[in-house]
From TrEMBL, chains A, B:
One of its GO terms (molecular function) is peroxidase activity. SUPFAM superfamilies: Dimeric alpha+beta barrel. NCBIfam families: Dyp_perox_fam. This is Peroxidase. The lineage of its organism: Bacteria, Bacillati, Actinomycetota, Actinomycetes, Propionibacteriales. Residues 204-233, 272-295 are annotated as: Disordered. Residues 217-390 form the Dyp-type peroxidase C-terminal domain. InterPro entries: Dimeric_a/b-barrel (IPR011008), Dyp_perox_C (IPR048328), Dyp_perox_N (IPR048327), Dyp_peroxidase (IPR006314), TAT_signal (IPR006311).
Length: 403, 403
């Protein structure tokens, strides 16, 4: 496990990160259109209404503002590939998917597409691909990003295999479910010689406010969700998310958690109980210590001798200062489903971090030990993926880590 | 059963319908903004980006261009209400829902809303409410719209109770699943003293083309779906959809069908086989006899002695000239689901017509007798509802038919 990434580590990154920012900001959008108008939100960089380019230093879906629909689909490689540790076959699949992603995000059908007209430009479509932990075991022998591995069991987890694990993930986000669903079907169909569907989860987000401006968005508890994120386009974001150097430079790691939310018992709380458990104002997302949604919480602030931000509140437990300076970049998608005839609602949670073992795991442990929200939330699925860097035209996804 | 609505009947409607059009077109959008810019598509009138007013001669969601997400939710009234035929209680529920719909479509939380911030303005939210057939049986004794009743069994149907029937329906459409899902949860929660959830189905649509212009949209076969609709804002639309006079004037009837589509076997067809079964070009939606998407098919056209539009093609079987001049106004939403561990895809089909018995039923019989598409499509759910007219500020939904 890598050493703790403290303040000193952050400062050490600045030189590289600043150079990386300009490239990263430009990489996400096709054409020469100025990005000044695209003010980054807490959950991503707003799109300009043009197709998101598949090419760049990083896979563009991570820093992009979320679409209204996000589907996450995991696949397992065929047993024969596993037995052989067949990196060549995996590379062929990556080439197939590269062609698919380049077509779909531009609004074109894939080669062999049976309904190519369902691909549409300007659907804000992004596809992010990652590789699961088995590919770094024998006989594959691929080199993982630093700190990557399976997330250890947490005491509040109630994981269901049906929503956990996987050798490959595709995170497909866009403006409508028909476009997104079509992209998922093509990716799954074209992967068939190599891999089979393991799970598929669909969620929604409100990416814009009533004036049509991109905003952070809310989960089904009504909470503004993602305010404390490092802002895409900043050095802090780059340091938090992207692997700095080595084979995986420009890549990241992804943890997908299916977090069931108990809406009926949450609804029984008073509003002040709800706000106290989070540490934020429900209406605005602002910290209970004041300021605006994007201002930092004042963890030391006291009222009548007691902390304004409660000891076990989510914002305190997840705050970098409670976690040795560690951060993640999180995105969410709300889901409602019927599982075994029972209504289930919750959040499809994505956590991106350069170092899974040194960022996600210790923060999650802090939350698992004591977080008021554990009372109303339960992880029922969990999966982790190493996310290769972006690729350039003529290259293919994962080329730098597989070739 | 009412007499056939032929050409003579259509002409007879013109005077009334023309007067109704101006009111209807203006009713759907709040404020004085000109609607000239809102060119109607085959599946609805484009919104202007302002909240859709809940008030008007008709419930506004019917003629409105579909949202990216549509949820259909059916409820059953409590047994005690049924035993008593308690119209007073039903009227109380309609008042509660009226308050809810007026708030939600304006972007406000409902009274007692536990997460009012999930309501958002400019989400293109519409809610259409209807009453199921049991309410017109004893002991309720309500007077139904002419021709309203249960759709008779069709030989190709494989109906599942899980997706069929219901005493009440709410069709909730909007820009994103979080807003739509929140509205559905509030409606279901507020109905709890009166009614319980029977089924809930969610679908998606691509309401806009790559240039952001509203267009007809496609189903999961890739077909442009809805081109032959009477165009909202025309006399033909008004004649097709709205009950002309009597208690239900300004109302309509709705048939909801869950149509399973066998994508794998459809995908095995050649493109020309697919196009022949529909009678339209797949890429453009234009009739195989030429012209543009919205041009009528030339059913008499022949090539080498054979009809260009095949005898059993969907456009011929569903065409008004094959059905004594009868028409419906259809809307669709694509769904993908896992049912009993098996992937299922299809179309949540809504058919609106003034007279269910004289429009939907005979057309559906014609299709059931012979329609190429029956090979790849199966109705697995069916429900019918009488849809009250719109209401004015200070009134409540269903007032004219219940009070």
């Amino acid at each position: 496990m890598a050493p703790t990434l403290g303040r000193r580590g952050f400062l050490g990154y600045l030189g590289t990160a600043a150079a990386g920012t300009a490239a990263g900001a430009g990489a996400g959008v096709v054409g020469a259109r100025a990005l000044d108008a695209d003010e980054p939100t807490a959950v991503g960089v707003r799109r300009t209404g043009e197709a998101v380019s598949p090419w760049g230093a990083h896979q563009p879906g991570i820093a992009a503002h979320p679409g209204a629909v996000t589907e996450l689909v995991a696949l397992d490689l065929r047993p024969a590939l596993h037995r052989a540790g067949d990196v060549e076959a995996l590379a062929r699949l990556m080439r197939v998917w590269t062609t698919d992603v380049e077509a779909l995000t531009a609004g074109r059908g894939t080669p062999g597409d049976t309904a190519p007209w369902l691909a549409t430009a300007n659907a804000d479509l992004t596809v992010t691909v990652g590789l699961g932990p088995r590919l770094f075991d024998e006989p594959w022998g691929l080199t993982p990003p630093r700190g990557f591995g399976r997330v250890p069991a947490m005491k509040h987890d109630r994981l269901d295999d049906a929503w956990s694990g996987g050798d490959l993930v595709a995170v497909v986000s866009g403006r409508d479910g028909t476009t997104v669903g079509h992209a998922v079907r093509r990716l799954v169909a074209d992967a068939a010689p190599f891999a089979a569907l393991r799970w598929r989860q669909t969620g929604s987000w409100q990416p814009h406010d009533a004036q049509g401006r991109p905003h952070t968005g809310r989960n089904l508890f009504g909470q503004v969700d993602g305010s404390a994120n490092p802002r895409p386009g900043t050095d802090l974001f780059d340091q938090t998310v992207w692997v700095k150097d080595g084979l995986w430079a420009g890549g990241t790691t992804l943890v997908v958690r299916r977090i069931r939310m108990d809406l009926p018992t949450w609804d029984e709380l008073t509003r002040s109980e709800q706000e106290r458990s989070v540490g934020r104002d429900l209406a605005t997302g602002a910290p209970l210590t004041g300021g605006g949604e994007l201002d930092d919480v004042q963890l030391g602030a006291r009222e009548e001798g007691r902390f304004v931000i409660a000891e076990k509140s989510h914002v305190r437990r997840s705050h970098p200062s409670t976690n040795g300076g560690r951060r993640i970049f999180r995105k969410g998608a709300n889901y409602e489903a019927y599982v075994d005839g029972r209504a289930e609602a919750g959040l499809l949670f994505q956590s991106y971090q350069a170092d899974l073992g040194d960022q996600f795991v210790p923060i999650q442990r802090t939350l698992d030990e004591a977080d008021e929200l554990n009372e109303w939330t339960t992880a029922v699925g969990s999966a982790e993926f190493a996310v290769p860097p972006g690729w350039r035209e003529g290259e293919w996804m994962g080329q730098s880590v597989l070739a």
